[in-house]
Amino acid sequence: xxxxxxxxxxxxxxxxxxxxxxxxxxxxxxxxxxxxxxxxxxxxxxxxxxxxxxxxxxxxxxxxxxxxxxxxxxxxxxxxxxxxxxxxxxxxxxxxxxxxxxxxxxxxxxxxxxxxxxxxxxxxxxxxxxxxxxxxxxxxxxxxxxxxxx
Length: 150
Hints:
It is a single chain. By secondary structure, this protein is α+β, with helices and mostly antiparallel strands. Helices cover 39% and strands 30% of the residues. The protein contains three helices and six strands; from the N terminus they run βαββαβββα. It has helices at residues 17-38, 67-81, 123-143, and strands spanning 4-13, 45-48, 56-61, 86-95, 104-111, 116-122. A six-stranded antiparallel sheet has the order 2-3-1-4-5-6. α1 packs across α2 (67-81). The radius of gyration is 20 Å and the shape is globular.
């Protein structure tokens, strides 16, 4: 049997120790909400990385992380703590055994002030989109009588 993993490790700096305490409260409320409303456990671990600063939250997952949970948590913190600027992180998808479509990853960049996504990418979707784009261009060229070579 294969084990599938989503892993990440990033710093989310909320500025101060007081803000870090508020972030821990937000994390607890979010975890309770996920359990109550969606029957899920929180898809990341978090602790203060004192070496990086008093408000540096180390958000990580060794095996079964949820990038969506990280994004939702960070946006809640940003709104509650009135944070601004850009923030982002990356993650990987892997598998303990070779499986088709079991490997990849992604990245997400947020504007903390507006709560908007600035950019995001999913490696699997990227591959399929690029293949479809190239194949679409080949088909378009062929329909115009330009040949079928890219």
